[in-house]
Amino acid sequence: MIAGITTFFLGLMMLFREAELRAVLWRVLGLLAGLMLALMLGVFFFSEYLASIWIPEGDAWYWVVVGYIASFFAGLLSIVVGAVAFVALASAAAAPWLDTLAYRTEKIMGFATVENDASWANQALAAMINSIRPLFGLLLWGLLALVFFWFPPLMTLIWTYGSIQFLNYELFDTQASRKDMPFKARKQNMKENRWFWLGFGGIALLLMAVPILNIFVLPAAVVALAKYDIEQHLTTQSTVEQP
Q1: What does the DSSP assignment read for 64-132?
Q2: Distance CA 168, CA 205 (A)
């Protein structure tokens, strides 16, 4: 889990440190900021709606405490929903720039790669198609969470875990697509490195709740995974070449 968290922050630092990566970031920043502002409005209204359902009516003193707890979980659940929606939309809308970020990261790491030269429409469509199967998985987690709708803490926990799983597929999509990894191989990778992905997706989801910083989460994740992938490849190559 620590490895996943560390990998993410190393990618975030590299994103701001390297001029080649910053140049791409500034080009896509307006799009990401616009999406985030729109979804923040949605998160606010969804939180208000949930709170109105969960907060009980009554005059007893403990209803006030219950009301605060319900409001807290309504806000938390809404933020998680907003984070999932943002990453899903942004990963498709910004697909070409994200691929360029991954390409330049690999190039900086000294690894010869090829940039995706498909049109924006084709790359965006491919990203959306790659989101379909993970989305079904998220819906299953959502149905399970609904079973505990009247117990907000457990519902929020279940939905958050399912959202981390979905976010990981979205954050991994750029690098996995560059390697032509099918869904089965992506799923196997996450299964074999469960704790890494839990830390990586968990810190990404947490930072999505931080204003301003949240718009950098997706680009940072793409850089982080490209960097990590090259490091793993070079480490494996070095091990094989040793006598």
Answers
A1: HHHHHHHHHHHHHHHHHHHHHHHHHHHHHHTHHHHHHHHHHHHHHTT-------S-HHHHHHHHHHHHH
A2: 10
Instruction: Count CB atoms within 10 A of the CB of residue 199.
Output: 20
Q: Please give the torsion angle defined by the CA atoms of residues 66, 67, 70 and 75, in that order, rounded to the nearest 10 degrees.
A: -150
Question: pLDDT digits over 52-86, tens only?
Answer: 776 666 565 556 666 677 777 777 777 788 888 88
Q: How many CA atoms lie within 13 A of 61 on its CB side?
A: 0
User: Residue 60 — φ and ψ, nearest 5°?
Assistant: -65, 150
Range ranked top by mean pLDDT from 22-31, 50-59, 150-159: 22-31
Predicted TM-score (pTM) of the model is 0.86
Check whether 101 has a pLDDT greater than 60: yes
Q: Which residues does 137 contact at the CB level (< 8 Å), separation at least 6?
A: 162, 165, 166
Residue pair 39/90 in contact (Cβ under 8 Å)? The answer is no
